[in-house]
Every structure is written in C-alpha cells, then in structure tokens.
Please model this.
Amino acid sequence: MSITVLKAGLQTTLQGAPYTGHRHLGMPAAGAADCLSLALANFLVAKSFGESAIEIALTDASFRFNEPCSLAVVGAAEYLRINGDEQPLHRTLEIKAGDRIDIGPSRPGCRTYLAISAAIHAESLLGGRSTYLAARLGGFQGRALGNGDVITFSPDSPETAGERITPEHLRPHFSYDHVLRITPGPETDQISESLLDNLCLAPYIAGGRANRMGIALEGTALSASESADMPSAAVFPGTIQLPPSGQPYLLGPDAQTTGGYPRIAQVIRADRHLIGQLATGSRIRFVRTTPEKAMDIYREKLSLLSPWLGRIKLW
Model:
C-alpha cells in the first residue's frame, strides 16, 4: 500500500504530534507546524488529531495513490485537484488506485496538510514519528520528501468516517496579516519596563531568514543593550528572543532547547499554530495578555473545537 511522490515541492515532510518529555536530552518538539490544520485534516479521515500526515510548505506538490483510501486536505493550499478536477478542501474524499492528487501552493499562508485514512509508515523514536530535519530523525528517513519517493501505509481501516465536511465557522482563515497574543518573557523587565509596549506598538514583518526553527522579524528595533551576555536558558516554540541587533526572533516548532538571547515574550498556546502559517512578508501584530488570560483563551478555543473534534490538544 503506497503513495508515490510525483512532485515534492520545496519542503514536504511527514509530521504529526510533537516529541514531548525529551528537551533535557536536547530533543526539540518538532511535529506539525500548524497543529490545528493537522487535527482538522485527521478528523475528516477518522484519525486521532496527532497522527502522521503529509505537511506541504509553500509550493505545490503532486502524488499518485497506488491503492484506494480516503483523504482530506486542510490548510493554505490554493487548490486541490484529483485527476485534474477541482475538489474542495475540508472534505473527506475517496481515492481510487492510480488517482493523481495535485495540491496548489500556499496562498496566503505557508502550510497545507494531506491526511489519509490509513496509517502512514513513519520512522519511530522517543515515542514519536514526526520529522526533525536538523538531526535527520523520524518521518521519512529523517528528511524532506523527494520526487519519486514512495510512502507506504497500512491497509485502510475497516472503520471509515464516511463523508465529513468541516463546519465553516471552524475553518481557519488564512491571511498575510496575523495577530499573535503574547505574555511577558523571563527577561522582559530586566531590559526595559516598556519593552513589551514597544514590541506591540507597530507590526513586524516575517523576514526571509526563516525555517521550521524560527523566523527573523523585521521592524522597529528594540533596546538590546543587555542582550549579549546572558547565560543560555530554556526556550520553546513561540518564544521571542532579542538578539543584539534589536530585531526580534520568533522560535518555531523545531526550536532549539536552549538559547543565549533574552526571552522577551512567549506566544500563547492558543495562538502557536498560527506560527506555522507565517510566510515571508507576513505582517504580525503582537498583543499583550496575562498568563491567566492566556489559559482562559486556550480553554475557550478547545471548547469551541471539541464539539466537532472531540478531546484534542494544541501545542
């Protein structure tokens, strides 16, 4: 049972749930950059929210299914075509052996998820199956997919979802304008009491120096006079660091486990999936909130999603 990659695109990987409980070993979280889109895609094919799927970044990609199964596509893709015919995103679709799937580039946004009803075979380690590219671990041989690669999967489950369609009010809106809510970081007040106010004063732009580890932000430089001599400390996806240049750096899903620049803010858990959709040139406005309010926002988001998706986690 297999899928042949006809056109891999810029960076197409197998991603699912993050690696947890191993940061003391230097192992980053990795996993799907946009966990909400992954969860929505997996639900449409009757799979758990963290199961492995195909994550496609920025450019178009094409696949041939060598056996029948169900699939769903969720994310920023401009189009989905099966054998040249336009098909909707956010819907369960039945695929026959030999069918060709073409997924368009991400416009706007950055990533799209292709989920299938069968279990994708991915390399397992430390209790996870996601691809961590920097160390060539997990997923498909620890690397991005290439043209001609064959992804194997188990026979389809006898329990199928039937046709499911994501309700309109639960479909993420993709744009080049984003609002990310933040809480103060451990070093915020050590640099300047007005640091977060200045960070939230004007939009920043996602710069061209970007990958799954993080995104260099371009905009008003912040005071960085004390940012050069800090000992390394724990960092996480969503941490905003302040290098000596004064231009903030936003960490992504493959973020290192420690860093030596001041941690001036942390994107709240409810908004971190949006980091996976930040394309170069995206405009980002930061909005300050409190840790207590951040927990309320996360609970509210889960209560909105749970009637459709059941019990899930966002990471």
